[in-house]
Amino acid sequence: xxxxxxxxxxxxxxxxxxxxxxxxxxxxxxxxxxxxxxxxxxxxxxxxxxxxxxxxxxxxxxxxxxxxxxxxxxxxxxxxxxxxxxxxxxxxxxxxxxxxxxxxxxxxxxxxxxxxxxxxxxxxxxxxxxxxxxxxxxxxxxxxxxxxxxxxxxxxxxxxxxxxxxxxxxxxxxxxxxxxxxxxxxxxxxxxxxxxxxxxxxxxxxxxxxxxxxxxxxxxxxxxxxxxxxxxxxxxxxxxxxxxxxx
Amino acid sequence: xxxxxxxxxxxxxxxxxxxxxxxxxxxxxxxxxxxxxxxxxxxxxxxxxxxxxxxxxxxxxxxxxxxxxxxxxxxxxxxxxxxxxxxxxxxxxxxxxxxxxxxxxxxxxxxxxxxxxxxxxxxxxxxxxxxxxxxxxxxxxxxxxxxxxxxxxxxxxxxxxxxxxxxxxxxxxxxxxxxxxxxxxxxxxxxxxxxxxxxxxxxxxxxxxxxxxxxxxxxxxxxxxxxxxxxxxxxxxxxxxxxxxxxxxxxxxxxxxxxxxxxxxxxxxxxxxxxxxxxxxxxxxxxxxxxxxxxxxxxxxxxxxxxxxxxxxxxxxxxxxxxxxxxxxxxxxxxxxxxxxxxxxxxxxxxxxxxxxxxxxxxxxxxxxxxxxxxxxxxxxxxxxxxxxxxxxxxxxxxxxxxxxxxxxxxxxxxxxxxxxxxxxxxxxxxxxxxx
Lengths: 247, 436
Known about the structure:
The complex is a heterodimer. Chain A is α+β, with helices and mostly antiparallel strands.
């Protein structure tokens, strides 16, 4: 598609504007989704940890640990939860979901800590771990690890959808802008052709004609003005000339 | 008439086709009235009992990496049920089993149980397989306690069906995992192997065994030196090298495995390959013959691998025909050669002529029939519990008398230890000589 030199700078401006919009909205989207999803996951996990902690009291005090394992296995089916472990008040692991074994990073950590922490387990993704005390901590602690890659994936999906929309608008917008600019450039191109004809008329003595002279807009006025000036330049034709009207 | 769904087809197949030697043709159609009762049945059918049939319900692993357990348990039970049905049944009623496959997964097990209770209206649940499945089904029994629904003789030694709040809805025959693990720990400690590690399935079954080992070691002032886990459903083709590495780092004197045969055979293979020279013990649930077959089929020098094996069992050796029930089991397995219904049959699975698991199924069925006999001519679910409690010092022919009561919901306690000699499991009499 031939883009008039006159409009290349405005077109570049439009391109730049779209770029700024795409980058800024994506950045806001990433920040918002990241923040909200992280908060939501953390909040949900805290709730689940509290639920397990409440349900664990009776099991730890009265029942076999297989019932405790059965309980946490059910929660592991929730999307985003990667591991769950329960330690007693002495830090001994009572139930967990780790395969092939409890990671060294977790064995080395403070089992009674219920603060939210970020973990980078060896050979695995990074996790956000929340904790909840069982019976105010005297019966142990429940820990739940959420896979951060799930949040990252959600962000990528959200940003991807937004970028897809913006890219589509961008492509359609650029094509439309070029088409509109070419439409706007057409009278100027015709004016140029008309001016060249007028110049040649001076040399050949033939009379130049153009549909532009019939137009009521600025292009028509310019065409008539060019015709007037060509006649002013040729005093023999000046008598039959028509002065352009004011815009 | 209801649509001919897969479930209906299964029921029809069982009743009409495969179970035909011992079921009346009237039951064979599988037709139901709009009330949900089999055609021509009286109101008693609502509880799984008609004039001609007593219907028991089973959800077990008939497919997947642990299918051998469900298949062999069923075959053992069916060998006895077929015999009883050929003799005229229980008070003139044939015993039928409604089977569903849960693949050893909890969610299908729960769904199957709901079907058995709400759609099939079985008289009782019988022959379930596995801890993760049974522990999820137990709350259903409590929910249906007004209907007097009981679970009989699940193939698991876990505690949840042996203690409150669900223990009152199940009756167990086999020894518990707690007893099995305590026995293994006692014997290992007795020969000076104090550094005991555990390899277990990462679920309720594994945790039950893990807890048993922990408790038994704690009673002797010891702790397990290491632990490694695997995901339920792991097969023999998978690698257990990482688990072996984890345990080898703890320098164990012995390893107790709480798993199913596929994963435990893979662990044994990788442990021996990586130089872990310590006894590797398995619980009865493992499926000893399936495990040994995987090893012998995959390596040339299987004796080198099998010499580390020691498996606890809850039934005696099926080779010891001096035990009356073993002799009867051998005869009936040979005579009836029970197979899974066609729709559940696994073409690539070759059943064992005899196995510890099918012997357990046989013994379970024998006691089940005894209980049904004690219900008399008009059995109802409401009578079931009382009928079980009348079983006192009952001789199953296994060398251990069986008793049940309000406080005693496990019939047997005896354990047997086996090792592999010349490619087959034989009783282990001298731990010191073998592993000392």
